[in-house]
Every structure is written in C-alpha cells, then in structure tokens.
C-alpha cells in the first residue's frame, strides 16, 4: 500500500489571518498594561479589535470552511481520551485541522477571551479610564469586575504559555510543524487520509462576517 505523504490545504486564509491577528492584538493588549503607564487608549483599541476578532471567529465557526467549524473539532469525551492516549507516541500529527485535545484548547481559549472582553467592557483602572459599559453599573461592581478581568488575563497568559509549549512539543517530539501549517495553510499528511469532508468557502463570506463583527463592536462603543 502506498503511504507516501502529500501537502494538503487544511487552513483557509481567514482562519490563518484571525490566528495571527489575535496573537498581535493580545501582545499589544498585554504590553499596553504591563510595559507602559499611560497606554490605556491603546489597551482599549486592542480590546475592541480583539472583541471584533472574537465575534468573527465565533460566527466563522458556524459558516466557515470545514476545519474552521466547531462541529469539526468539538470532540466528545471518548474521542478526546482516545487521542490523549497517543500523545506520547513520537509520530506526526495526522489530523486534518485541530486534533481533539487541540480543539478543546481552542474552545477554552475562546471562552476565556469572551469572558475577558465582556468584563473589560465594565472595568476601570481607578483613574479616568473605564470600559464603555462601566457607567451602567456601580463603581464598586465595576471595581469587582475589574479584578475578575485581571484574573482572567492571568489564566489566558497560562493558556498561551501551554499553547506555545504544545507547539514546540509537536514540532520536536511528534515531528509536526504547526507553525508552518498556520502560515501556509498546508500540512504534510499521508495520501491515504480521507479528505472527502474537507471543503472551503469564499473569502468574500469572511469579509462579510468580519464587517458584521466590526459593526457590532462599533455600535457598542459609539452608542453605549
């Protein structure tokens, strides 16, 4: 049986742009608080951009290509356990798109990001800066939510660190270069792999979804 490998496109352009835009905005969001004392406006703009990206990704999880859809990588407990038992085997990752464990990591990260964005809308920094919805609640409640906002960010930093560690684990132990795949969109996979369910949609659909996400955030900021 021929088991040679071939390059297969697994990530569409919108998903890849989302991924790297998220990395950039998250870094800016962190740096604007941790590295500078007077960069709250930058922090707000980074937050609004992150919220736009988050809304886009949630919508794209329902209307995007096969590997972008939640139904593709939201695996059940049994499938996740079965895959977890293979983690220590030094063989390449032959999954099209996210593996079951990686899929759950995406769900957790998006959930934490959603909580981070929502709490940020109601937070303040004890000075003159506050989220666009902070004036709808009491100062004490805003202070409490601000603390939760900071705590969630610490969880996100931990998740990001685990994600980076996983990327290196797959690169050097399982011989699967996830970074290149997320840059080019292609993975090297066995040609015996069933790709009949793999499909992509028009980039115009992604532009429309992004416009909807941006309009939602703009309306929230302008009319709050």
From TrEMBL:
Entry-linked Gene3D superfamilies: Transmembrane di-heme cytochromes, Chain C (1.20.950.20)
PANTHER family named among the record's database cross-references: BLL0597 PROTEIN, NI/FE-HYDROGENASE 1 B-TYPE CYTOCHROME SUBUNIT
Cytochrome b561 bacterial/Ni-hydrogenase domain location: 10-185
One Gene Ontology term, aspect cellular component: plasma membrane
Pfam families referenced in this protein's UniProt entry, alphabetically: Ni_hydr_CYTB
Entry keyword set: Cell membrane, Membrane, Transmembrane, Transmembrane helix
Entry's transmembrane regions: 17-36, 42-63, 101-122, 152-173, 204-223
Subcellular location: Cell membrane
GO BP field: respiratory electron transport chain
Membrane topology: Multi-pass membrane protein
Gene Ontology MF terms in the entry: electron transfer activity; heme binding
Keyword Disulfide bond: no
SUPFAM superfamilies: Transmembrane di-heme cytochromes
InterPro entries: Cyt_b561_bac/Ni-Hgenase, Di-haem_cyt_TM, Hydrogenase_cytochrome
Protein name per its UniProtKB record: Cytochrome b
């Amino acid at each position: 049986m021929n088991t040679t490998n071939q390059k297969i496109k697994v990530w569409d352009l919108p998903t890849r742009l989302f991924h790297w835009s998220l990395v950039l905005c998250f870094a800016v969001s962190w740096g604007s608080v941790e590295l500078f004392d007077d960069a709250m406006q930058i922090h707000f703009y980074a937050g609004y951009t992150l919220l736009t990206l988050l809304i886009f990704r949630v919508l794209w999880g329902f209307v995007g290509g096969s590997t972008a859809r939640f139904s593709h990588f939201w695996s059940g407990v049994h499938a996740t356990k079965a895959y977890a038992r293979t983690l220590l085997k030094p063989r390449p990752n032959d999954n099209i798109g996210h593996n079951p464990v990686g899929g759950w990591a995406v769900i957790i990260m998006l959930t934490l990001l959603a909580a981070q964005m929502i709490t940020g809308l109601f937070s303040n920094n004890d000075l003159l800066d506050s989220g666009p919805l902070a004036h709808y609640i009491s100062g004490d409640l805003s202070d409490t939510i601000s603390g939760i906002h900071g705590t969630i960010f610490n969880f996100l930093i931990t998740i990001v660190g685990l994600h980076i560690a996983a990327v290196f684990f797959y690169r050097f132990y399982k011989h699967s270069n996830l970074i290149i795949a997320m840059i080019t969109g292609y993975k090297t996979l066995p040609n015996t792999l069933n790709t009949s369910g793999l499909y992509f949609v028009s980039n115009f659909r992604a532009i429309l979804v992004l416009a909807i996400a941006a309009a939602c955030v703009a309306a929230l900021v302008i009319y709050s």
